[in-house]
Write a structure and sequence with these properties.
The protein has 431 residues and is an alpha/beta fold. It is built from 19 helices and ten strands. The protein has helices spanning 3-8, 14-23, 27-36, 76-88, 103-113, 122-134, 142-154, 168-177, 186-198, 203-206, 208-218, 239-258, 272-285, 306-319, 339-360, 365-377, 381-387, 391-400, 416-424; strands spanning 39-40, 55-56, 62-67, 93-96, 118-120, 159-162, 221-224, 262-266, 291-294, 324-326. The strands form two sheets. It has an eight-stranded parallel beta barrel with strand order 3-4-5-6-7-8-9-10, surrounded by seven helices. α12 (239-258) links the parallel β7 (221-224) and β8 (262-266). Bound molecules: iron/sulfur cluster (SF4).
């Protein structure tokens, strides 16, 4: 039985117990969330060294790091290095988006090495294999697509992005809409090309029950991808995006009925003042299913700094109820990220997630800040480093310019906290 089926029967699985401990919540709360679809625990029965991780209502906002080769660059060692960097920096999940080199071997090695849930977009492999076999993605057979999904599931992938909501009706909306950046989802683009060439409905939509059967067999979580996500502010929250979301909402219901865990992917590029509305729309249409946003990036002009534009959107989204943030690295829109880009992206997204958790009232979130502020007031530099997201950076920057006193070199002898403490003569708050 899947986690969802067990939870509906009132059973708290071992994964639920682990998540309850991690989140400092009761197993009953997690079990009820899994049962009603507001919490997911992506945990493939064949991913043996996995430490389960919960995503959803009332839990800490989670961060995903995308790794993987491109057709131009990358090898197994580089990707395993990125995996280690992502986990060391606190990523809760990783997605292997490899499209170059031996993608089957890379995915196998990543699953073996990863203690965090691993996600994939199976149509990438199916598309590449179709090019190798038939000369073009559009020649891919439906059986070949489902064979790759089944291969990923049986190899231990914990969640798969499947763009089931990219239907002919959504494509019609896209054509009528007129966009600046049309389609920016790779998986969405593969499918749209296939559907238009073959004059067929999306096989992931038409044969959704077949997908549900595979997911159920290995307890794979479906991540309903947003092939119509806006890739520029000008295209945000348009009719194509909403058409796809309405279809996805219905597919969430069908997944729940089949006992399959499911989450929903979202934008993309959004102006700041549309972020909250997008979260509310998803939560309402998808009946509280966990929401997984890609950024969102709140401006199109941050190239080189898109981990910052993504973190700004991510913080607003998390505060509004988003459950899961896909990181954005400084290399976004420019090149394949390297391990240092992965580090910057994970840390930026973790800041966004934590900022959201403070607003959500997640257990333990604000206490972390109080501890940091107390250490700051006490001029306890080692404790500040220990509590920071990047202790090594904290120590390095602090020691860059030394100060004669206990304060840092920013204000030196005129440290406001030191000066005022002398006269206030009160002790620091205890946390
Ligand atoms: S010297 Fe200035 S910046 Fe440094 S701890 Fe004191 S008040 Fe803060």
């Amino acid at each position: 039985m899947t986690q969802l089926e067990l939870a509906r029967k009132g059973v708290a699985s071992p994964q639920i117990e682990v998540v309850a401990q991690q989140e400092r919540l009761t197993a009953e709360y997690i079990q009820q969330g899994v049962a009603n679809g507001t919490i997911i625990i992506p945990a493939n029965t064949n991913h043996t060294n996995l430490i389960p991780c919960g995503i959803g209502k009332g839990l800490k906002t989670k961060v995903n790091a995308n790794i993987g080769t491109s057709s131009d660059f990358g090898n197994i060692d580089t990707e395993l290095g990125k995996l280690k960097m992502a986990i060391d920096c606190g990523a809760d999940t990783v997605m292997d988006l490899s499209t170059g080199g031996n993608i089957v071997a890379i995915l196998r090695d990543i699953i073996t090495a990863s203690s965090v849930p691993v996600g994939t977009v199976p149509i990438y492999q199916a598309g590449i294999e179709a090019i190798n076999r038939h000369g073009a993605i559009v020649k891919m057979s439906i059986d070949e697509l489902f064979a790759v999904i089944e291969e990923h599931a049986s190899n231990g992938v914990d969640f798969v992005t499947v763009h089931c909501g990219v239907t002919q009706s959504a494509i019609a909306r896209l054509k009528n809409q007129g966009r600046v950046t049309d389609v920016v989802s790779r998986g969405g683009a593969f499918l749209i090309g296939w559907m238009l060439y073959n004059e067929c409905e999306n096989p992931l939509y038409e044969y959704y029950d077949r997908l549900l059967e595979i997911a159920k067999a290995f307890d794979v979580t479906l991540s309903l991808g947003d092939g119509m996500r806006p890739g520029s502010l000008a295209d945000a929250t348009d009719r194509a995006q909403i058409e796809e979301l309405l279809i996805i909402g219905e597919l969430v219901d069908r997944a729940h009925q089949a006992g399959v865990q499911v989450m929903v992917e979202g934008p993309g590029h959004l102006p700041l003042n549309q972020v909250e509305a997008n979260v509310q729309l998803q939560k309402s249409i998808c009946k509280g299913a966990p929401f997984y946003v890609l950024g969102p990036l709140v401006t199109d002009v941050g190239a080189g700094y898109d981990h910052i534009t993504g973190a700004i959107g991510g913080a607003i989204a998390a505060a509004a109820g988003t459950d899961f943030l896909c990181y954005v690295t400084p290399a976004e829109h420019l090149s394949l990220p390297d391990p240092e880009d992965v580090k910057q992206g994970v840390i930026a997204s973790r800041i966004a997630a934590h900022a959201g958790d403070i607003v959500k009232g997640v257990k333990g979130a604000i206490e972390w800040d109080v501890k940091m502020s107390t250490a700051r007031k006490q001029l306890d530099w080692e404790e500040q480093a220990r509590l920071s997201l990047n202790p090594e950076l904290s120590r390095r920057v602090h020691s860059k310019h030394t100060s004669v006193g206990a304060a840092c070199s920013m204000c030196g002898a005129f440290c406001a906290m030191e000066l005022v403490e002398k006269y206030l003569d009160i002790s620091s708050p205890k946390c």
